[in-house]
Amino acid sequence: MVKYFLRYDAMKKVWWIFLALFSIFFVYGIYSGDQNEVFGNAVRICYSCIGIE
Amino acid sequence: MRIQLAALIIANSYFLSSVLKYIPLPILNCHACPLAAGACPLGTIQRFIIMMAVPFYTVGFLGAIGSIFGGMTCGWICPFGFLQDLLYKINTRKIHISERYHITRFAVLGLLILVPLITLEPWFCKICPAGTLEAGIPLVLSHDYLRSMAGQLFNIKIIILVLLLSSMVFIKRPFCRFVCPLGAMLSLFNPISKIKLEVDGGCNRCGKCERLCPMDIRIYEDPNSMSCIRCMECTRGCEHIKLKL
Fold first, then answer.
1. Which of A12, A38, A45 is closest, CB to CB, to B22?
2. What gap in Å lies between CA B183 and CA B177, rounded to an integer?
3. A21–B48 C-beta distance less than 8 A
4. Rg (Cα) of chain B, in Å, rounded?
5. CB contact under 8 A, A49 and B128
6. Closest CB to B153 among A25, A39, A52
7. Which residue, B184, B179, B194, is CA-closest to B64?
8. Helices (DSSP H) in B98-203: which residue ranges?
9. Is the minimum CB–CB distance between A10 and chain B shorter than 8 Å?
10. Domain total of chain B
11. ∠ at Cα B52 (B49, B57), nearest 5°?
């Protein structure tokens, strides 16, 4: 059923609505300072990634 | 192939890390890798879940990329996808697995969100083969104190990596098809993304597209399948499949 819904013509043209919605998320994230948390997490030594308990 | 190689170099250009580590790049490239330039979106999402915060920035960025390109980043710039493409080129007997089993990666995506919520641990990072290859092995080899700390989990990570690398020789992109939660996330956008594939009326269903496709998709059945990584291999081999903007 989802497959048929996604094949509906109007659905094929809504990419820009999703783009707008996620752009709002992105801008709100920047406003909240999420990018600093992302950076802090990325530069920290990640013992999980290395495989150390 | 050249674009994949360029992306691998850029994603691991340490001198760019002061800028790119603010961005969760839509590729599987562990940010604990000594050379990594960008942040890993999976590690970032898990971190926010553990903090009981909504990752608006990361989801917004990935969603915006997905809305335009769908799963295209997997096929063109993902270093782990590139590794799988290279290993599959080794001349040996190959195994074909149906597209219907690709659903397992959506289960992994569900677990990626649920498990950190319960355990408050980045569980996927603990088993991620990209993390083992790019961060675990180089760091453990180069730092004595890390080597002394490596225990059972590190051994399990190595076993998972070896099993996956071996399977990559026989199966087309096994990690992308059955495990990758990032690919699953981006592929949700395939049916609605701006960039799409289109099959014209001249298609006689010869099956050439399925043989060329790294995800074993029958393009003529569903050109915008959620399994598609938009690598465009099918368009190179068949004149009836076209990129639609």
1. A38
2. 8
3. no
4. 18
5. yes
6. A52
7. B194
8. 104-119, 123-127, 129-131, 137-142, 144-149, 152-170, 174-178, 181-187
9. no
10. 1
11. 60
pTM over 0.90: no
> Chain A contact for B14, CB < 8 A?
no
Q: Residues with Cβ < 8 Å from B141, sequence gap 6 or more?
A: B147
- From the list B214, B217, B244, the residue with the least C-alpha distance to B231 is B214
Q: Does a structural domain hold residue B243?
A: no
Is the residue at B21 inside a domain? yes
pLDDT (tens digit per residue) in B163-220? 999 999 999 899 999 999 999 999 999 888 888 888 888 888 888 888 888 888 888 8
Interface list for B 199-238 with A (CB within 8 A): 222, 224
Q: In 3D, which of A5, A26, A50, A3 has the Cα closest to residue B23?
A: A26
Judged by a CB distance cut-off of 8 A, whether residue B38 touches chain A is: yes
B68 within a domain of the structure (yes/no)? yes
**CB of B66 within 8 A of CB of B43?**
no
- Which range of residues forms the domain containing residue B94? 17-193
Q: Classify residue B107 as left (phi > 0), alpha (psi -120 to 50) or beta.
A: alpha
Within 10 Å of residue B97's Cβ, how many Cβ atoms? 14
Task: Assess if residue B214 is contained within a domain.
Answer: no
Q: The tokens of B34 are what?
A: 């000594």
Of the candidates A34, A42, A46, which has its C-beta nearest B125's C-beta?
A: A46
Q: Which two tokens stand for residue B58?
A: 């990361």
Q: What ipTM, to 2 d.p.?
A: 0.83
Q: Which residues in chain A have Cβ-Cβ distances shorter than 8 Å to B136?
A: 49-51
